[in-house]
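Lab channel / #folding
Pinned by the channel admin:
"Please post every new chain as: sequence first, then the structure tokens as a reply. Keep commentary short and put observations after the output so the thread stays searchable."

First post following the new format, from NK:
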Amino acid sequence: MTMNNHNHTPEQPPKDVPPEAAADLAPDLAKHDSPAAEEMRAYDPYFGGDEPPKEGTTVRAGEPKDPALPVASEEAVVEALRSVYDPEIPVNIYDLGLIYDLKIDEKGDAVVTMTLTAPACPVAGSMPKEVAERVSAVEGIGEVDVVLTWDPPWTQANMSEVAKVALDMF
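Reply from TO:
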């Protein structure tokens, strides 16, 4: 796998990654071998990338749902989304208004359309993958696509009342 001519591989993170993070990071990145994963790694600050992911970049996670299981409710998926936080902001991504759309089909497959606070957000290379993995872990959900969009751009108006109170924005 080519890593944009950087001097490391997914199995060996760059030297500036703290050792405690490198142990967890390397195996996780190595298992995602797709053009979208490559693009996300290209921007991941741990890997020295400097271009944000493009409009429509899609990250996938999960496996087909067991047909014997009922399809998860939207509320269960929203609960999973509320477990994901931007590390720089003490509010979950759902209440921040980063989730623009959520669709769950009759097979339990989900499509999440999301944005970030800015294209240059330091977690642009990792957050969509985390969202896909958290949603795919919900019982009754199968395969998950997380589609990154920059249109419309995120603004503070997207935040829920809960987020605004938590950030003392009243």
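NK: Confidence is low (pLDDT under 50) at residues 1-32, 43-48.
TO: also worth noting, The radius of gyration is 16 Å.
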